[in-house]
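Contributing new records

If you add data, match the layout below exactly. Sequence lines come first and carry their own label; structure lines follow with theirs. Keep one chain per record. Anything else will be rejected by the validation script.
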Amino acid sequence: MVIMPIVQAAPVLLTRTLLYTAMTRAKKLLILIGNPNIIEFMIKNVDSKKRNTGLEYKLKNLDF
């Protein structure tokens, strides 16, 4: 079960991708709590930013 509070935040954080993540993590039940207008905004917000985590660099430079 996933319970996700939906609160007003920076638009860059309120993305469709975040909702998708919650939906795919919820095996049996997803509960969204919050403003329906914000949820609608998230559904329509398809902007995604490239994440610079450095993971690729770290994996390529592992010492075994």
